Structures are given as C-alpha cells and as structure tokens.
Amino acid sequence: MASAGTNATVAARTAAVRLTDTATHWQLMWWKFRRHKMALLGGGILALMVFFSLFAEFFAPYTPQERTAKYTQGAPMGFHFIDAEGSIHLRPFVYARVTKRDKVTLRLVPTVDTTTRWPIKFFVRSDDYKWMWGLIESDIHFFGFEERKEFLHLLGTDQLGRDIFSRILYATRTSLSIGAIGVLLSFVLGIVLGGIAGYFGGMVDNLIMRLIEFIRSVPTLPLWLALAAALPREWTALQVYISITAILALIGWTHLARRVRGKLLSLREEEFVLAARLSGCSHARIVARHMLPSFMSYMIVDLTISFPYIIMAETALSFLGLGMREPIVSWGVLLYSAQNIRSMILMPWLLIPGLVVIIAVIAFNFLGDGMRDAADPYSQ
Q1: Are residues 102 and 152 in the same domain?
Q2: How does DSSP classify residue 287?
Q3: Residue 9: left if φ>0, alpha if ψ -120 to 50, beta else—which one?
Q4: Least crowded by CB within 10 Å, which of 113, 144, 201, 234?
Q5: CA distances in angstroms from 337 to 261, 316, 321, 326, 365, listed in the order given
Q6: Upper half-sphere CA count for residue 210 (Cβ side, 13 Å)
Q7: Whole-angstrom Cα Rg for the chain
Q8: pLDDT digits 0-9 by tens, 30-82
Q9: Is the pLDDT confidence value at 149 over 90?
Q10: What is d(CA 334, CA 81) in angstroms, rounded to the nearest whole number?
C-alpha cells in the first residue's frame, strides 16, 4: 500500500512537471498569480468597484444632485431587521426621521422616530435614467421607496441634502475612468517615446532622456497645481475632465519610458532582432512585433502600479479645488466638502469617500504586487 501511494505521488509530480514544461508564459503567470491570495483579494475588490460604478444608476437610490430638503446634514441611516420592541422583520427597514428645533442653536435637526418604520423595497420604480452609454432607458432601482415622503440615506447626506452613498457610486465611476484613461495615455506615450529612445539611441535618445529628466526634476505636486490652475474657469465640466486626464497622463509617462528604453537597449543587439533586420522588417515592426512582446508582462505590471498614482493625483487636485468641479462628482470633489474643521466635526461621514480611496489604492497595490511576482514565473 505504501509503495502504491509513493508511485501515485511520483506520477502526480511527473505530470505536473510535464504540464509546466509545455505551458505558455502567460499560463505560468496565471498559475503563479492564483497563489497570491492578497492579489486575488485586491482584484476582487476592484472588480466590485467597477461593477457597481458601471451600474450606478441602478444601484444608487438617487441621482448625484438630487436633494432631500428634510434631511440636510443628516447622519447615516443604517437599516435594521430588529425593531425597538425586539421583533424580527424579514424585510429590512429604517426608522422615520422627523425634524425638531434645537433649543440652543434653534436649527431644525432631524431626529429618529422609533414609532414609525419605513420598510425598504427592492426593484422599485422611481426616477428615469439611461445607462450603458444611453442605450438602455429604465426607471427601476435596486432599492429605495416609491413614496417621496420616505427617504433612505445609508451613508448620510451633505450640506445640501445630497445622498453620500449615491454620490460615491457615481464618483467611483469618474475617478476610475480618469485612472484608466490617464494610464492608457501614459502607456502609449511611454512605449512610443521609450521605444524610440531605446531602439535608435544617439541624439534621439539624448533628447528624450533630457526631457524625461526635466519632467522628473520638477516637484510633482507644484507641477500639477500649476497646470491645473491654468485651466480657464469658464470651461465646462467635460472640458475640465478631459484636460485633467491629459495633464495626469503627460506627467506620468516617464517611468514606463525609462523602463522600455532600458529593455530595448539590452535587446536591440540580440540575435532574433538581427534576424528580423536581415529579413527586411521595418523598424516599427521589429519593435512592435519582436522586441516589446518579450517583456510585455513587465509593462502590464507597470500599468497596474501606475493606477494608484493617477487616482491619487486627481483626488488631490480636486480636493484642493483645482481638479474636477461640480456637477461632475469624483472622490476628490466629495472630499472637497470636508476641508474645514466645522464640517469634519458636525458631519464626520463626509470623510467616507476618503476611506473608499484608501481601499482602492490598497487593492491596486495588492494587485500590482501579485502581478509583479507573476511576471517572473520561474522565480521562487
């Protein structure tokens, strides 16, 4: 019996070795990436963020600019399954809110009315919206109320009575799209300019490297502030969105360009590059079809690691009032309302978007660490 078990173990190991020998580089990367638990967790969190942001109109009970006049500066209204009497309810509910005048400040303050319950309904019909880039029109929301006298603000409201939860969903779409577009533009610039410098060398290489050194020598934050402050104040929200994305991309391409240049410098004298030249391939084909694919995995890692920097840059600019502006909502725009001490003391829930930023950045770092390890599948 022991001999049979040993033989089975040896056969299993032999089969695993054979499978590894015949696997492609991308298969080896995926197998190693799957063993990185934190990277899988980070990827799952980011996938959920992307999913909820893409369908924000469906999951958000309100639009970003919709106001609840009866519940301005309202605290989070967490839902319940057990009422004040100890009874259990299968359908979640929130307690009603009534406004009472504060005896000291004479302000109308929302208070909890435990005698009245508002059951939360799912797949309710409310405001019309268009999603999937305006291709689908619907009025069904995942949860909410059909009666306007009832309202639900899971994460509270801001100074104007706008729902924080709904605004976070829409802001996630904006911030992640800025990161994706900015990283894509940086990726293209880095590959093109770094490829030209590394492949041709000489004077072209010197000019591009001096440009990279000049950009990297300027402090990043003052450069962002100067470029963002130069944007005309009368520009529309869409123009500002495009401009901020372009600014972040024009500054963030230098790291990838230097890496691409170094790789191409080490590859341009290899035998497979010489064979491509002798066969009559053009310079563009040699770089695009023969040299770049040989270290594409490392470029993908750089692409993933660049996401947090772009997102943090947009958040910082918008937080300082130089980036996105209303009516566009982003993580930085949401945090802009929490700049002063008074807001942080009276409405600490305005800092919840900051927690979302932290979670997103950590998730990107976990994903980047996993992809960095997987990029070299033969290392232990």
Answers
A1: yes
A2: I
A3: alpha
A4: 234
A5: 43, 13, 10, 11, 27
A6: 7
A7: 27
A8: 888 888 889 899 999 999 999 999 999 999 999 999 998 888 888 898 888 88
A9: no
A10: 30
User: Residue 241 — pLDDT band, cuts 50, 70, 90?
Assistant: confident
Mean residue pLDDT across the chain: 82
pLDDT of residue 49: 94
- 173 phi and psi, to 5 degrees? -60, -45
Task: Count how many domains the chain has.
Answer: 2
Domain that holds residue 103: 68-161
Crossing angle of helices 164-200 and 296-319, rounded to 10°: 130
Residue 7 lies in a domain: no
DSSP, residue by residue, 84-146: TTS-EEEEEEEEEEEEEE-TTT--EEEEEEEEEEEE-EEEEEEEEEEETTTTEEEEEEEEE-S
- Distance separating alpha carbons of residues 119 and 174, to the nearest angstrom: 32
Q: Which of 137, 161, 185 is the last residue of a domain?
A: 161
Looking up tokens 């009368």, which residue turns up? 234
- Residue where one domain finishes, among candidates 113, 129, 161: 161
Q: Quote the CA–CA distance of 244 and 292 in Å, as a whole number.
A: 29
In a domain, 189, yes or no: yes
Find, among 133, 260, 272, 108, the residue nearest to 186 by Cα. 260
Higher per-residue pLDDT: 102 or 180: 180
Assigned token pair, 101: 């005048």
The percentage of residues in the chain with a pLDDT greater than 90, rounded to a whole number, is 14
Q: In what order do the strands lie in the sheet with 80-82?
A: 80-82, 88-101, 108-119
pLDDT, average across residues 184-191: 87
> Quick one: 206 and 133 in the same domain?
no
Asked if 175 and 274 sit in the same domain, the reply is yes
Structure tokens, 373: 């390890």
Assess if residue 256 is contained within a domain: yes
* Token couple for 233: 């104040």
Run of H or E including 268: none
CA dist 105 and 120 (Å) reads: 33
Same domain for 72 and 193, yes or no, is no
19: left (phi over 0), alpha (psi -120 to 50) or beta: alpha
Give the pLDDT confidence of 69-93 residue by residue, as tens digits: 888 888 898 888 888 788 888 889 9
Query: Within 13 Å of residue 223, how many CA atoms lie on the same side as its CB?
Result: 14
